[in-house]
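Attaching the record inline, Q. Sequence:
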Amino acid sequence: MFRTSDVVLITVMLAAATFTYKTKHDAEAKYTQLRKIETQAQLEEDTIDILRADWSLLTQPARLQRLAETYQDELGLEPVEAPRLAEFRDLPQAPLTIEGLMTDMAAAGDAHDQTVTGAVQP
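Structure, as predicted:
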C-alpha cells in the first residue's frame, strides 16, 4: 500500500497547504484592517479640514467686530487705550546673570551667607 516515505510526503504537503492557507487568511485579515484604518484616517483628515474652515470663518475680524458691536451693552467691551497696557517703569528688571551674582558675592567679601536651608545647618 503506502510506504512510509509516501505518508511523510503527504503529511508535509498537507502541512504546507495548511500553512499557506493560514498565511493567506491572516494577510487578507490584515489587509481588511489596514483598509479600515486608512478609511478612518481619511475621515478624520476631512473632519480636521472642516473644523479648520469653521474656525477660520468664526474668527474673521469683520465678524468679530460685528458681534462686538451687537453685544456691546451685554459684554461691556471697549477699545483699549495705550496707558492701560503698561509703562516702562512697570516692566520688571532684567533677570540676574551668573556674572552679576559672582560680582555681588565678590563685593560682599567674607560676609557670611545667612540663607537657611533644610540641608545645611548655619
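The chain has a mean pLDDT of 86. Residues 1-59 form one domain.

More tomorrow.
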